[in-house]
Amino acid sequence: RPVVDGLILHKHGVFTFGRDAREAYERMIALVSRAEARLAQGRRPVFTPISVSRYPLKSTEIAPVLRGACAVRTAGGDAEPKRFVLDYRVDPAILNYVSGADLESYAQRGVVTPDHVLRTKSIPLILPEPGAGGLPAFAQTVRDAVARYAARYEAMFARQDARVGGSKIQLDPMPRVVLVAGKGLFGLGPTPRDAAMAADLAENTIRVVTDAEAIGRFEPLGEADLFDVEYWSLEQAKLKTAVAKPFTGQVVMVTGGASGIGRATAKAFAAEGATVAMPDIDLDAARAAGREVGGWGFACDVTDRDEVREAFDAVVDRYGGVDIVVSNAGAAWQGKIGEVPDEVLRRSFELNFF
Q1: Three-class DSSP labels, the chain
Q2: Structure confidence at residue 1 as a pLDDT band (50, 70, 90)
């Protein structure tokens, strides 16, 4: 293409030219400055916000509902469903985006770059802000929305697979990004790392779409192109050889996980793919054990009801829910009958029984 003012715009980027490296560099800086100035010039409010609900639900209430609704069940329905770990994100930019009145329009046109579809699918699941019906009503809304999303995905697959000769293996139809009006976004994945990647890409998409809508209109690739990326032959080949571990996507909490049986139990679950939370009264030991087994160690005194409640909330906030609890925390104090102090007996019953 012709060089105009020492500049070439190419599908792979921007190239500037000059008589020497310094001139080329200065032209690039000037170009970037002009672009930034244009973006800032007369920037209009991008999204018209919805009204804020008077009946808010916490993210720790919403996340387990999402995990349950998005679990992938087998045809027979008897096997344990494939679950996802969640990663919750919220900040002013995210809230501005997910609370826009036209969210259904600008958020469901497609992904920012074609390869994002491998981590996030082509569109997110969009949910309304929880209303006056509280959690039961919202849970039904989520189940209905997930069913519609899955049906839409399966219909898309049928259309595009027919276009390419019917040779593809359908991926699961569940979303990898969920946008909840008035609350924020959730990334979904079989592991915390995958969920974080989906959430990272969703945040990036929000920034790009917001900037695009501020000066024009966000227009991504079409359905056929995105299908070709998502169902690329090399990605399909991975499906034929991949063997999922039995506890992948399951969130396991092992109390007293810093040492002994608890530590060994957490390690065994982690080796089989589980996401492991390891509360223990000894914070330093819990953190060390968490690093060793690839889990999360944190402090909790299981004889304190408030701390137990906070521990569950913390795990739900971090991973989206809890599937398995191993009530392992315990200790043995020794002494002769009739000589063991009442304090020790009470402590033993609080920990080992109550």
Answers
A1: CCCECCEEEECCEEEECCCCHHHHHHHHHHHHHHHHHHHHCCCCCCCCECCCCCCCCCHHHHHHHHHHHHCECCCCCCCCCECCEEEEECCHHHHHHHCECCHHHHCCCCCCCHHHHHHHCCCCEEECCCCCCHHHHHHHHHHHHHHHHHHHHHHHHHHHHHHCCCCCCCCCCCCCEEEECCCEEEEEECCHHHHHHHHHHHHHHHHHHHHHHHHCCCCCCCHHHHHHHHCCHHHHHHHHHCCCCCCCCCEEEECCCCCHHHHHHHHHHHHCCCEEEEEECCHHHHHHHHHHHCCEEEECCCCCHHHHHHHHHHHHHHHCCCCEEECCCCCCCCCCCCCCCHHHHHHHHHHHCC
A2: very low
